[in-house]
Design brief:
heterodimer; A: mainly beta; Sulfite Oxidase, Chain A, domain 2; Immunoglobulin-like; 5-stranded mixed beta sheet; 5-stranded antiparallel beta sheet; 5 helices; about 10% helix; about 30% strand; globular; disordered N terminus; B: mainly alpha; Cytochrome Bc1 Complex, Chain D, domain 2; two-stranded antiparallel ribbon; 3 strands
Chain lengths: ~400, ~150
């Protein structure tokens, strides 16, 4: 449904894109007239995504998964959400790609080719959970502006590349280093070459972690175009916007990085909790760092009906930002009682963890299966919406699926 | 990778449409400039080179088919000012009060190169506040739009 709607209303726009102008009489084309190929500027084909993925925005591209698509332990490209702030770089040339290290706290300005990164540094591979800071935004009340993500802006792929730490040490940095800011080749929506769509990053402490990578592969292959080809910063467990795509420059800053979308309401929440709908001054907003504990039921798909007496095996993934998930519980009575799920260890730090269980139902009727994860510091997911914030970040309310016993 | 895909899929299309396209593009350009947002000086403001202007015609079931916008007063002004940089979907998926929409416009003007809207601002705000107003959702909604299916054992 979503897909058909999208193609229908974007086909003519795309013809215009090809020609560099709009189609004046496009709306007068007889219905059903096929402009060869133009009905198919299909984002699903273009980005090799599954047709069940949901497009939220076509300029810039934003696309999310549904919960049941995220059942794989390692998220394949076809189910990985796309969150773009600008326009994808056109035809990046991997043979000419350079990553430059600079900044106030860099000992030198030094550039690396992709070849340098692959040959001069030891590669490392980690499974890393990347969740959009705004995943779950659609539930906030009053509504928060931006792409209205439901539950599917999360992934855990296998990333391969060099440790950012190795790179920073090779280039050298001074003791006043505070933050790493990335700069990338994506283009601003306004077409202004002087503006960056997004330029965020991480504090030194996060930059120096083993698992923080400058990655050139995802799931054992070149990174797909929509996910940052040919080079992406990957900082698992933090808002995915910290993991810059198509990166060309990393600045070692002597202050908190002040690039695009590091300030204002972007990826920041009130430092102290506020009542829903409160206006919050810039000076009272704090940058989101580690993402909160969360879980997703990935099997069965919501809407399952099954006969009374049968037992239902279920499973999903849980993650907790910088922390480990300590336990996951489930409820089939709207949170009145909770039972333990089995929980596996993560493949590595910052990878999501598999949980599973099996449940029987006492009588026929409508049920909701709820999952609730708790992190290693004892913080669990709330059952209702967590603290409201102006841009609707950090919704880690427990995931629910609907079931009918007949 | 992206470029390769495009060439493969659209290669023949490019050739086939080039002739038609040039004529259309020229006609489009002339028509387009007359509908552009203008500065006080009367000059059209720069818009992204690869952006596309939708025509306000083509309404079906109360929806502007090309963009997905609700049909209503001010729609042509909304289309011409709100879709050159980003897709209409970024608007239609959001719900805000008039004040909320105004502050979004200010943010776009301060940080995203949105132009001064002049008299059009009130038209746009009226449209958005009417057709994309918030609804009370409470602290947690019912699960909705469930597609029921029989689970295979």
């Amino acid at each position: 449904m979503e897909r058909r709607k999208f193609v229908g209303r974007s086909a003519l726009l795309s013809l215009g894109s090809l020609l560099g102008a709009e189609i004046v009489f496009g709306n007068r084309l007889p219905e059903g007239l096929s402009l060869l190929g133009l009905q198919d500027p299909d984002p699903f084909a273009l980005f090799d995504k599954d047709p069940e993925m949901v497009v939220l925005n076509s300029r810039p591209w934003n696309m999310e998964a549904q919960a049941h698509l995220l059942d794989d332990p390692v998220t394949p490209n076809k189910y990985m959400f796309i969150r773009n702030n600008g326009l994808i770089p056109e035809k990046p040339d991997p043979t000419k790609w350079q990553l430059t290290i600079d900044g106030e706290a860099a000992r030198q300005v030094k550039s690396y080719s992709l070849e340098d990164l692959k040959k001069k540094f030891r590669p490392h591979t980690y499974r890393l959970t990347l969740e959009c800071g705004g995943n779950g935004r659609s539930e906030f009340n009053p509504p928060a502006s931006g792409n209205q993500w439901t539950v599917g802006a999360v992934s855990c792929a296998s990333w391969t590349g060099v440790r950012l730490r190795d790179l920073l040490e090779d280039a050298g940095y001074t003791t006043n280093a505070v933050y790493i800011g990335y700069h990338a080749a994506d283009r601003h929506l306004s077409g202004d070459p002087g503006k960056e769509p997004i330029s965020r990053g991480v504090p030194m402490e996060k930059a120096l972690q083993d698992e923080t990578l400058v990655a050139y592969q995802m799931n054992g292959k070149d990174i797909p175009m929509a996910h940052g080809y040919p080079l992406r910063l990957v900082a698992g467990g933090w808002p995915a916007s910290a993991s810059g795509k198509w990166i060309t420059r990393l600045s070692i800053r002597d202050r908190v990085h002040d690039g695009a979308k590091m300030t204002g309401d972007s990826y920041r929440v009130p430092c102290e909790p506020v009542a829903p709908g409160t206006k919050v001054a810039d000076s009272d907003m704090c940058i989101i760092e580690s993402m909160p504990v969360k879980s997703l039921i990935t099997y069965p798909k919501t809407g399952a009906t099954l006969p009374l007496g049968s037992s239902l095996p279920f499973r999903g993934h849980a993650w907790a930002g910088e922390l480990r998930v300590a336990r996951v519980k489930y409820s089939i009575d709207f949170g009145s009682t909770w039972e333990d799920c089995s929980l596996e260890a993560p493949a590595n730090r910052l990878a999501w963890q598999r949980f599973s269980g099996e449940v029987r139902f006492p009588q026929k009727g409508y049920y909701e299966l709820w999952a609730r994860a708790e992190d290693s510091e004892g913080k669990a997911q709330p059952m209702v919406l967590p603290g409201w914030n102006p841009k609707g970040y950090l919704n880690n309310a427990c995931h629910r699926i609907a079931l009918k016993i007949t | 990778m992206e470029g390769k895909g495009k060439t493969g899929k659209w290669g023949s299309l490019w050739k086939g449409l080039l002739g038609v396209g040039l004529v259309l593009a020229l006609a489009a350009f002339i028509w387009y400039r007359s509908g552009l947002p203008v500065q006080d000086s009367g000059d059209p403001l720069p818009v992204p080179a690869d952006s596309v202007q939708a025509s306000p015609e083509g309404i079906s079931g109360g929806i502007h088919v090309q963009t997905g916008f609700r049909a209503g007063e001010g729609l042509p002004v909304v289309i011409s000012n709100c879709t050159p940089c980003h897709s209409a979907e970024l608007v239609t998926q959001n719900r805000m009060t008039r004040e909320g929409w105004e502050s979004t416009i200010r943010w776009m003007q301060e940080t995203q190169n949105l132009w001064e809207l002049g008299d059009n601002e009130a038209v746009i705000l009226d449209y958005l506040a009417t057709y994309y107003a918030p609804e009370e959702k409470g602290r947690r909604q019912n699960l909705e739009n469930i597609e029921w299916y029989e689970l295979e054992p």
